[in-house]
Amino acid sequence: MQYLNRDTSLSADQRENISFILNEVARLNGIITDLFKVAKPRKLLYQNVDVRELVERCRKSNADLFSDKGIEFSAGFEDNLPLIEVDPDQIVQVLINLLRNSTEAVAEGGKVSVRGYIYRGGDREVVLEKERDMVCIEISDDGEGIEQEDRQRIFEPFFSKKKGGTGLGLYVSHSIIQHHQGRITISSEPGDGTTFKVYLPISMPRKGGEFEAGHSPR
């Protein structure tokens, strides 16, 4: 199909139809991939990683999206931010998904920001694990915001208000964070932007290793 799309003898209508088919195939492939992640999550490969490095990977992945909409992206981190103990590839997947949601929510020239800091309490939706502190990664945008009834369902499977959305991205992200013994929350008001907060355990003084998903890596 991709080879057909490069055929110079095709008409504009034919090219448009082929592009539509390719986009639909990519969308369906994404749905199938997300369903597999939910149905059979793989083992988590824990490493001690720097939040800054994870965010930088996500920034590079979304650079074209930021550029296309003229989005002002900024990132700031608390001094001496400790390492977190996570599967880096899975957390990058979560952060990329959240950044793309923010990018789609803002207008041309909008703002998206990321902050990283030690969580010291105060969020009613987060229960701090005994003897284990957390780092919070906060992703905010100045988009149109989300209605309360939609916020309450935002992490449900197949719930989406986006055209062509599968409703699986945030559900999978929520599942990944839960498997890391973390938390993910959302705060938003219509017309006042949206903020996602991802809470992840600070690394313990031990070597990284392989652990079953859903079990605390201690």
From TrEMBL:
InterPro entries membership: HATPase_C_sf, HATPase_dom, His_kinase_dom, Sensor_HK_Regulatory, Sig_transdc_His_kin-like_C
Keyword Transferase among UniProt keywords: yes
Enzyme class at the top of the EC tree: transferase
GO BP terms, alphabetized: phosphorelay signal transduction system
Documented EC number(s): 2.7.13.3
Keywords: Kinase, Transferase, Two-component regulatory system
GO terms of molecular function: protein histidine kinase activity
Reaction(s) this enzyme catalyzes, per UniProt: ATP + protein L-histidine = ADP + protein N-phospho-L-histidine
Domain Histidine kinase: 1-204
Pfam family for this entry, one: HATPase_c
Protein name: histidine kinase
